[in-house]
Design brief:
The chain is an alpha/beta fold. The protein contains 14 helices and eight strands. The protein has a single domain, classed as Aldolase class I (TIM Barrel, Alpha-Beta Barrel). 39% of the residues lie in helices and 14% in strands. Bound molecules: iron/sulfur cluster. The site of iron/sulfur cluster (SF4) has 10 residues, from helix 2.
């Protein structure tokens, strides 16, 4: 199940202690657009401050820096104070997305007492709720009673890839495609919707292979998902991905590739969306030259599920140098970030 060498490399980069923070305040709240009810609308997003992901404490995923937002010794009282902040901030928004730097459905991370308080606090105010969870917490005994609050829930699972080799040797997710299928089946049988997260371009695979992996994974996951969110890699602090990226040994994916994935899967009826974190920035997905229009078209197509504008832009652009690069890179054993690597060599840094 676990690649121990990869797991050790990730653990060695973890900070020694969680930062001191206010346990009565969520990490952050903001509004953003999404289509959880089948049309684009404003949603409220909250990141609750919790003790964090149990998997992180055990091993952690290679790209995950969510532990930067956790605090130890968070009590149910602290969570209730955070929940009060959210309930006060909802305004006219009817859709709420909840992140916890871990799993909302983990009863040790978000205890049943706080969970109950949360659902009662948003009853009558929210028409659709999205919560995130690892697969192991999606059991009938743990989530069956959530239906009783009468709020439609979409559970989001980070499958990342349907390829178990990638899950194990590039991501260290501590899960598998079959566990995802089983969790999805339980959630859907109990009446919940399911959003599947996929990770575009994890460590140790070329961009060409990563594109193929996303297209394959979307095909594999679509029968088990209400919708699928393709999340391109972004560089988070104190992670193995950051460590390799800084050395020039990892290159972020291109926006052209994301557009291609969306266009090739848009007619599968899978409800594929992508709202890239850090798009067109140094630590997020970007083309060689920044392309704000392409990023906007990706957002718009995701929100509206009308891909015609994105297709027109994609088909009319000269992508020859990008395509040549992707093909040439794929032949290499490694796929470094040449710009960063050369900068390091020029500054006489050691490579490792
Ligand atoms: S399961 Fe999610 S929260 Fe936990 S370490 Fe992996 S990416 Fe981070």
């Amino acid at each position: 199940m676990i690649n121990r060498q990869l797991s050790e490399s990730i653990k060695n980069l973890m900070p020694a202690r969680a930062r001191t923070t206010n346990p009565d305040k969520p990490v952050s709240m903001w509004r953003e657009r999404d289509r959880l009810r089948g049309f684009p609308e404003n949603t409220m997003v909250v990141i609750f401050r919790t003790a964090g992901c149990a998997w992180y404490n055990f091993s952690s995923c290679s790209m995950c820096g969510y532990f930067n937002d956790v605090a130890s010794n968070i009590t149910p009282e602290n969570l209730k104070n955070q929940i009060d902040s959210v309930a006060r901030s909802l305004g006219d928004v009817r859709v709420l997305k909840v992140f916890t730097s871990g799993s909302f459905l983990d009863p040790l991370e978000f205890p049943p007492e706080a969970r109950d308080y949360f659902f009662r606090s948003i009853q009558g105010k929210i028409d659709k709720l999205l919560v995130e969870s690892r697969t192991e917490y999606i059991t009938e005994s743990n989530i069956g009673s959530l239906r009783d609050y009468g709020i439609p829930v979409r559970i989001a699972i980070g499958l990342e890839s349907s390829n178990d080799q990638i899950i194990r040797n590039s991501i260290n997710k501590g899960s598998s495609f079959s566990k995802f299928v089983s969790a999805s089946s339980t959630a859907r049988r109990l009446g919940y919707e399911l959003r599947t997260y996929l990770l575009f371009k994890p460590l140790f695979i070329s961009e060409k292979a990563a594109i193929a992996d996303m297209i394959q994974s979307i095909g594999d996951a679509r029968g088990h998902s209400t919708d699928i969110s393709v999340n391109p890699m972004n560089i988070q602090k104190h992670t193995l991905v950051e460590s390799m990226w800084k050395k020039g040994l990892y290159r972020l994916p291109r926006l052209w590739s994301l557009a291609r994935i969306l266009l090739e899967t848009s007619d599968l009826g899978a409800g594929v969306v992508s709202y890239p974190t850090g798009g067109n920035r140094e630590r997020g997905i970007h083309n060689e030259e920044n392309d704000p229009e392409l990023l906007n078209l990706i957002y718009d197509a995701s929100l509206t599920q009308d891909f015609s504008g994105l297709r027109e832009y994609y088909d009319s652009a000269d992508r020859s140098s990008y395509e040549e690069f992707i093909e040439a890179e794929d032949i290499n054993y490694d796929q470094p970030d040449y710009t960063r690597l050369l900068a390091r060599i020029r500054s006489s840094s050691t490579l490792l």
